[in-house]
What we know:
Blueprint: H1 21-28, E1 32-36, E2 39-42, H2 44-63, E3 67-68, E4 74-76, H3 77-82, E5 94-97, E6 103-106, H4 111-121, E7 130-139, E8 154-164, H5 167-187, E9 193-196, E10 206-213, E11 219-223, E12 230-232, E13 249-263, H6 265-269, E14 273-275, E15 281-283, E16 285-292, H7 293-303, E17 305-306, E18 309-310, E19 321-325, H8 331-346, E20 351-354, H9 360-370, E21 374-378, E22 386-390, E23 396-399, H10 401-407
Helix pairs in contact: 1-7, 2-5, 2-7
The structure holds one RNA strand.
Amino acid sequence: MNQSQLFTKTLRKDPKDAVTVSHRFLVRAGFIRQLTSGVWSLLPLGLRVYRRIENIIREEMNVIGGQEVYLPTLQPKELWQETDRWETIDPPLFKLKDRHGKWLGLGSTHEEVITELARLYIESYKDLPKAVYQIQNKFRNEMRPTGGLLRTREFVMKDLYSFHASEKDLDTYYKKVVTAYTTIYKRCGLEVVVVKASSGSIGGSESHEFMILADSGEDKIVLCRSCGWAANVEVVKKSTCPQCRKALKQYRTIEAGHTFKLGTTYSHKMQAFFTNKNGAKKSIIMGCYGIGLQRLMATIVEARHDKDGIIWPQSVAPFDIHLTGLDLEDKKVKKFVQEIYTALKKAGKDVLFDDRDESAGVKFKDADLIGIPIRLVISKKTKNKIEYKERDKKTTKLFTRLQLLDKM
RNA sequence: CGGGGCGUGGUGUAAUGGUAGCACGCUUGCUUUGGGAGCAUGUAGCCCGAGUUCGAAUCUCGGCGCCCCGACCA
């Protein structure tokens, strides 16, 4: 697409209130904009990244047998009273009354809704195991939103729920989810540390957080550099590694995902039963697993940037290639740029073509800020060649048209 | 919820009781084009309300909004 037609523009200065790196760069580059505290719009560039993250997650959920659903945001009070969470869940629900005076909550999570469905469809051990997931908006009445997209009041979460006939089967599936999650972060260009965590108000027996090391993180973990053992500081008492007795070091991290073995906490309260082989009525054993998408997007920026801007991994970049045209008043140059643009599009590449009437400096600065992995420059200076530069490298190369298309 | 800070054009800021100024952006014109170009030109602002005062962006009170620290945290 032509950059002159882009809905957004870049900002030269950091927004006044932006503190974290991801907040500053995502706003400056025109990926996101705040509407009110903790509530954000995804703009064209931001939505492109979001969609690619969403697709990666969807693919990995499908690999482990997840079936996609879409559950309602408006949820009746009565359902939440079955688990005693209408009043107690924290952060609290956004609550509203309909025109008849009936109370509804905006879903902050979907255990109640999914368990309600499970008790309708799961009747026998023959119906188990099952796994369903959704990618859907969550509303949380947070005390204080923080760090741009890192903690918001409205966001999209991928939440997966699994149902099992035995603890053993849950354990087996849980391991698959951990593997899928690890793959998701890897595909998003992140290194993840999986730590044991407290399960908080959600309950259940075991819980893991998927942590990305970042100075702006809200969480702290201890990590053993020697053997790799790690845990949230909330659940660790000693300062030495329980595995190899070396010293543990503390790091700030962003929680980019969380998994829980729920056991029968919800199925028991909501009477979601199945009949086992012996004809006995048992509570369904459950697991739940969440990833916040906008937070993941911001986390990528926290982990991958330099002083000039974002460094998107190819897998989630808003475009594959940033094609920068200079000296566009020169007809030869203009023709050549357009030929290359067309050829790249034909090769299946998503290209942002900087056709704007701006100085070279402005274009380069914007390219660095936006962070598309490959920058191509065509100008009088490059003559019939194309300058090639990767966002995370300093060096440039000159390619002929054939060399370039060969490389793509 | 406790504590702190801040609201001035689109963005970032200055003026602390006396004519609201600067930079960037944006408009128009000319000149420019390899790391946020130059000249000229135009454009646009004191969060809202009440009070004090001859006079309020500035002081007081109330409201609204935003940010940060803590607490909290699927």
